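Before the break, one more example. Copy the sequence into your notebook; we will annotate it together after we see the structure.
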Amino acid sequence: MHISYCFILTIFRLSTIKLMISQYIEASILAFIQGFSEFIPISSSAHLILISKFYDFNIGSLQLDISLHLGSLLAIIFYFRNDLFNITKNKHLFSLIILGSLPLIFIGYIFFTTGLIDYFRNLKIIAWTTLIFGLLLFFADRSQIKQKLDVNLNYKSIIIIGLFQVLAIIPGVSRSGIVITASRLLSFDRVDSSKIAFYLSIPALAGASVLGIRNILENNINFNLIFLFSIIFSFFISYLTIKYFIIYVKKFDLKFFVYYRIFLALVLFVIIYS
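Here is what the structure looks like once it is written out:
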């Protein structure tokens, strides 16, 4: 009887360890996708859908989503800490970030609270937006460079960029991609366009985190170690992505990301019509 009990207890412990390892692997995959795709002009939603076709995630939850967004938010704040925390010097930058984020916050809130966003969570829509906005990025990146962020980013240009950013509500568009596209169309160089996308990600990530935390508090849900791990891993991947993407755009154009989006769209079309 004692041997049987020990055997059952051992099996239970092994199953628990296996489940825990599986959860950490899944959290690592999702944190990598979030941290990597949030800040470069590709679509995170397209990648999540594609990976879900080959791997059945069991860990998906509100707490995990918040952890991943918090990790990315902390990374962008930490990377640009000198710009953001010098409030006296950069009051104008703060006002531009807030103004440029208002359209997305306002319209995004309506779409998410009314459920309108669910009508766009369609694989065909994601495939087409991945392709179309990839091509738009290609043409935008051919624009001449005439503007500088420190000199020419004003209320008019940030409102235009902010209105473009609203399109990121549609899965497959890519928030960073559409902001970089809009900025390049306005003749900002690739580095400045990327910085604008990074700056505008702060209110977007903060808003998503606040809404999620509110839902958690309303439902009395507790965080655990796996979600702390997700925050740290998402922070690490996000920070490296920001750092090396800026290095990349200083030396190269954005054609690689355009070609990649076209390839990804074709893969999605194969999945849809196969």
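The chain has one domain: 2-273. The chain has a mean pLDDT of 82. Try to locate both features in your own notes.
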